[in-house]
Amino acid sequence: MADVPFDYVLTNQRIRNGAGEVLLFSWPDFVATICEGTSCFICGRSRREVAFNDEHIVPNWALRAFGLHQKTVTLPNGQRTIYGNYTIPCCKRCNDEMARMFKEPMSALIRAGGEAIQDHIVEHHALLPFTWIGALLLGGGAEQE
């Protein structure tokens, strides 16, 4: 068997690396820890362990660009909230890393227009836009009001 770069440990229905970061949540554990809890949706760390600056489901730059911060949205469970408050638990480290890897490049592409996005996909494939859209859909299912 080839050497694996991680020290896999199965704990509480999660697969963690040697540093204690969650590599994979089981579905019930994700629901309990993230959806119904307050741990970081990426690394699984709690607010007791690390600093948090929760991730906006719709990015702040998009909220500003379209004047949505104070508009309301109906969540899949029927509750209403303000877009600016529509967040998912995320620690500062993971949020900063997501900004560097996805939000900043996608923001630049979207601001450059549809042709820039199309050119990016042709030249670099669609992983960046699809990953970014997947992150948006993680909190999706909402209806704008």
Describe the structure.
The structure is a single chain. The chain is an alpha+beta fold. It folds into two domains: 1-37, no CATH class; 51-144, no CATH class. The chain has five helices and eight strands; from the N terminus they run E-E-E-H-E-H-E-E-E-H-H-H-E. It has a three-stranded antiparallel beta sheet. A three-stranded antiparallel beta sheet has the order 6-5-8, with no helix packed on it. Strands 4-7 form a two-stranded antiparallel sheet. The radius of gyration is 17 Å and the shape is globular. The chain starts with 8 loop residues before the first strand and ends with a strand.
Secondary-structure blueprint of this entry?
Layout lengths: L8 E3 L2 E3 L5 E4 L1 H9 L19 E2 L3 H6 L6 E3 L5 E3 L4 E2 L3 H21 L1 H11 L2 H12 L4 E2 L1
Antiparallel strand pairs: 1-2, 2-3, 4-7, 5-6, 5-8
Q: Report the total helices.
A: 5
How many angstroms separate the termini? 54 Å
Low-confidence stretches: 141-145
Share of residues in strands? 15-25%
Major sheet details: 3 strands, antiparallel
Gyration radius from CA atoms, angstroms: 17 Å
- The geometry reads as globular
Q: Percentage of helical residues?
A: 40-55%
Q: How many domain regions? A: 2
In terms of structural class, how would the helical and strand content be classed? alpha+beta
How are the strands of the biggest sheet laid out side by side? 1-2-3
- Write down the secondary-structure element order: EEEHEHEEEHHHE
If you average the pLDDT, what whole number results?
81
Total number of beta strands: 8
